[in-house]
Write a structure and sequence with these properties.
The structure holds 2 protein chains of 2 kinds. By secondary structure, chain A is α/β, with parallel strands linked by helices. Chain A has 20 helices and 13 strands. Chain A folds into 2 domains: 185 residues, Periplasmic binding protein-like II (D-Maltodextrin-Binding Protein, domain 2, 3-Layer(aba) Sandwich), CATH 3.40.190; 189 residues, Periplasmic binding protein-like II (D-Maltodextrin-Binding Protein, domain 2, 3-Layer(aba) Sandwich), CATH 3.40.190. Chain A has a 5-stranded mixed beta sheet, with helices on both faces. A 4-stranded mixed beta sheet of chain A has the order 8-9-7-10. In chain A, strands 4-5 form a two-stranded antiparallel ribbon. In chain A, α10 runs antiparallel to α12 and α10 packs across α19. The longest helix of chain A has 26 residues. Chain B is mostly helical. Chain B contains 15 helices and no strands. Chain B is flat. In chain B, 31% of the residues are buried. Classes of the chains: A alpha/beta, B mainly alpha.
Amino acid sequence: MKSRLLAAVLAAGVVLPLGMAKAAELEVTHWWTSGGEAAAVAELAKAFNATGNKWIDGAIAGAGGTARPIMVSRITGGDPMGATQFNHGRQAEELVEAGLMRDLTDVATRENWKDIIKPSSLLDSCTIDGKIYCAPVNIHSWQWLWLSNAAFEKAGVDVPKNWDEFVAAAPALEKAGIIPLAVGGQPWQSAGAFDVLMVAIAGKDVFNKVFGDKDAEVAAGPEIAKVFKAADDARKMAKGSNVQDWNQATNLVITGKAGGQIMGDWAQGEFQLAGQTAGKDYTCLPGLGVNEVISTGGDAFYFPVLEDEEKSKAQEVLASTLLSPATQVAFNLKKGSLPVRGDVDLAAANDCMKKGLDILAKGNVIQGTDQLLSADSQKQKEDLFSEFFANASMTPEDAQKRFADIIGSAD
Amino acid sequence: MTGHAKAGRPNQLLRNLNSKIASIPMMLTAVVIFLGGTLWTVVYSFTNSKLLPRMKFVGLDQYERLWSAPRWLVSIENLAIYGVFSLIFSLTIGFVLAAFMDQKIRFENTFRTIFLYPFALSFIVTGLVWQWILNPEFGVQSVVRSLGWTSFAFDPLYNQEIVIYGILIAALWQGTGLVMCLMLAGLRGIDEDIWKAARVDGIPMWKTYIFIIIPMMRAVFITTLVIVASGIVRVYDLVVAQTSGGPGIASEVPAKYVYDYMFQAQNLGQGFAASTMMLITVAIIIVPWAYLEFGGRKRG
């Protein structure tokens, strides 16, 4: 009896792995943990599981700043996952150069990514030395001003249509006990808000010269001085918003405690979750209502080089699943982001997303700062702007000088 | 013949052979991991390593950038303020508490447990607790205001001038209990006869403490000093939990700079340069102590 049981167990141990070998399990790491984000990831998992493989979810809480070091150290430490999220651009650049990331050129040419991915800069950011290393999944743009209609009603002023009107309305909001502009304390938020002000006030060309060409002279010039002037207004308006996380700041706008927030389109998920409708409860102004330009950063999946052949095959399946039209629609509707393909139908999109799609169709796009600057320069910028926004005694002129230094030494 | 001579003078290397073999793993760990890792870090701090280490020397560039970075300078200044006050207050408060405990009070065990309890909490928990206590909307400020003093303002974590003191309060709350216990152990080690002799001579109690007991507790003080000081240099989690370095960069500390630049900015060279500077700081503390402790004993 006993020996037969043992034999059965042994046999099962041999047979089962063979039977399961066809459906590979892939661990996918990402930092999408808020309510709306988790729902969006579930769509990806569903689509991948439908191909007969298995999606092992490796969510890492605590936003990209916490998650990326963990992902990088797993890949460099010889314990790679099946696939991992990064903001495409330069975050994974060195991992690719070190040969730790898988070349997806075959899949990309087979599936014709070059023609279907719009705008093409998304794929350019995945391309290093002519080879494609990542699969973009969505477009997130930073250039949005979210306004609480209720807050402006309470202050007795019209909902502003652009940044200048918003600045002019600030005293009225303050009088009504409302913080004009909500800015969370995390460094990336103030740095991001500055980039948005730059596109809106100085325009696309200046933005490209400063972050694209790293032109320190332009960064020290009069156009950027105007941007710093606006940032000075912004920090005065942001006084009193004692919150850390971006969604806490968004919540101030949702509850009408703050007039507005400069934040990327991911903030939309929070408004949706709170049951608010665009146009009625809140207003969105792309490009701060001044320059309707959006950046096309976003998220992409990278695939570390794996030795297991089955898993390598599953990586290819996952890459093409991520870009299939059905997945793109299901994922992006939940995420509040824009799809990377121009040929899918997003009829269910809300007003704000439609505005974004319009701008995208017109081609009024810029590259995101994650794509243009190295993580090192981004961090230095974050240090500068978190200090600038918190320290009222730091003059815009001093800050601009330091900003020009950072741009001058950027790589 | 020669064998005879050897038996007379046993080989030094083979004495206590078992214990020597047993300590080889630890010695290897110390040499390879601690010393080797340290040297590796110092060497690579002179390179321009980004996400992955690479041997491309750039001289002192990383150090020049480090010492011109406003955030590093703020970090150093914060560490100095935090360090000095945390040493002074934890030693003083710890000693005074221990002296009170030593008066043969009732429920000494209970009090000792209460005072030591915060030490059982990690810095992360301590930081979160104090973040709530010092939050102007939920903590001390709102409690005092609800009692009727509506103009009362106490929001250290949101004021960049005093934010480092907000962190200091939490650190003292957490660490003083341990200092107290060490001091209490030191006090208990003092011979009863010394107290009796002091009493016969009519020396007041506070004078006995300051001029007789404290000098006798030199070893305990030095041990405590080293424990507290090493905790100061590596303070990181408390800041992350309480303020994440904010508002702005007002409560940044060196260890956080190292982490952020190594992993978030993907600039290993810069992080290594900063950690080498921290190592030098620690060496400045440890070397004189080692000299006093070990050098002094030989002379005595």
